[in-house]
Design a protein that fits this description.
heterodimer; A: 314 residues; mainly alpha; MetI-like fold; 0% strand; B: 334 residues; 14 helices; globular; transport (chain B); transmembrane (chain B); MetI-like_sf (chain B)
Chain lengths: 314, 334
Amino acid sequence: MTAADVLPPASGPGDANQSPTAAPRSGSFWGDVLRRLRRNPAAWAGAVVVGIFVLVALLAPWLAPYPELSSPGREFLRPTALPGIGELAQFPLGIDRFGGDVVSKLIWGARASLVIGIVSTMFGLLGGMVLGAIAGAFGGWVDTLIMRVVDILLSVPHLLLAVSIAAILGRTPLAVMIAIGVAQIPIFARLLRSSMLQQRESDYVLAARTLGLGTGRITMTHLLPNSVGPVIVQGTLTLATAVIDAAALSFLGLGGGRPETAEWGRMLTYAQTELAIAPHLAFLPGICIMITALGFTLLGESLREAMDPRTRKR
Amino acid sequence: MLRTIGRRLLLLIPTLFGLTVLLFFWVRALPGGPAAALLGERATPEAIERINEAYGFNRPLPEQYVTWLGRLIQGDFGNSIETRRPVLEEFANRFPATVELAVMALIIAVGVGIPLGYWAARNHGRLIDHLSVGGSLVGITIPVFFLAFILKYVFAVQLGWLPTTGRQDRSVDATHATGFYVLDGLLTGELDAALNAVVHLILPALALSTIPLAIIVRITRASVLEVVNADYVRTGRAKGVSQGVIRNRFVLRNAMLPVVTTIGLQAGLLISGAVLTETVFAFPGIGAFLASAIFARDFPVLQGFVLFIAVAYALINLLVDVSYSFIDPRVRVQ
């Protein structure tokens, strides 16, 4: 047991004991979480994968041998075969049906995935936080109304909801991001509300209320900061789902944009027809999607474990 | 028990009612409205005007909603824009295929997942435990349709062991009484037809089962780990209760509650997964039809299918809650 573990308020196995320490953010709770993350090899693996992914996405213009949307290998296209891995020196992983360099497309695809992941998770997170916070803070009929709508949205399987929303918004990349994000709103809203409801009954909120603080003030300074833990975990896990969902929507033909767009899901979709002659065109982007999703999942799971009051004492 | 079921069914009504409102406005929010969606590329202003007049799309929204809801209650979900056939009929024709696929996937997921999770928990901290935890993480993060590609490539294209598409070979002369091909084959005694249908199910069901399988392994492992160190298990051991009884009646039965909940929650995943898996394997179920309806913006089909799926989803979860009381007598008392 380290010194930080015995620091007074962070000790409790129960929510009520553990949470107030999260409020000032200066000390034990987040410090403890970080320490536990550092000791967990799964967290390291996740962090390394996510780190590489983000770096590749950010540095794509310098890393990729060819510009985005370019078809440098057009002259090598033949109707029955596509140059595969190692067949042409200038295209180490071969070219696709548009004559695009597969290495470049995978690198540019990382950037597309990062943008989709972040933008859609932001949509879900913000929407869910606003709804969940309103429901959790006010209670009463506001809570009932919001939660009924959330229940209705949850009665439709998640991917189907995203697909239905994307179908209204039209076939553009932004529509896909909004659709994936909006489909996440009910999950975030419910999560934040339940964690705020737990806080609402706690002693320090009662103390704040006795001191005469208004609902808005208590929500912003007490309830929200103490309820974000599970939301951060869910947010990390949602990044993984978003990357997979974006590929799925692309696969269903909802991606939008030009067909040769460098995006993993899109590459996988077109590779379907060339599965017999060029299976690597499907395997490479598929493996990229998988590894990225795995990285975010490992990170999210480790974070959940590190924040879980039941395992924190060990 | 009956009262609980009745109450749950009643609670379903407002949710479904809310869903119809959302679905109604969802179509009105389509760019150009329902008329443009109906006409597709043939949408000229005059044509839109004509459709609006004919279908009543220019009437006040509340009036339109009430008319539409009235038709829904009578079982009229409109006609598919693509096939021109009633949505209800399209759904009924394809539903058995998807149920067969989902059941097969669930059999794989439960049949492999529970023993594997149990085994991992009993070997906590050993290699097999790490392997199953790692494997289940991969199972959760692998995109369903990517896995479907791999399976199709390896077992159908390369090895040629299993068929790539469809539910049954055309050459098989089978009678279809119920629409469930495997069941049909068994009922009529055409065993070759049943076997042929099963062979067609293997690859899509394997692809569809991965996510539920991975989740079931994790939950089983976690809940067995929680139960296995409980006092009553130790007491049982001390009393000399046999290993088999401890495993089946002490550990597994108590560990099954969270697992059953999880199985219920898989219904949504199975339906979402079916949209993708059925598309890859050209399997004629509701998923593949829905995927093509999405692409063609066949909104009556989308509206109807989303509604049916929500009902099915809710009923499955109700069934799961009811099954609790059979597994756990404590729930029955409350």
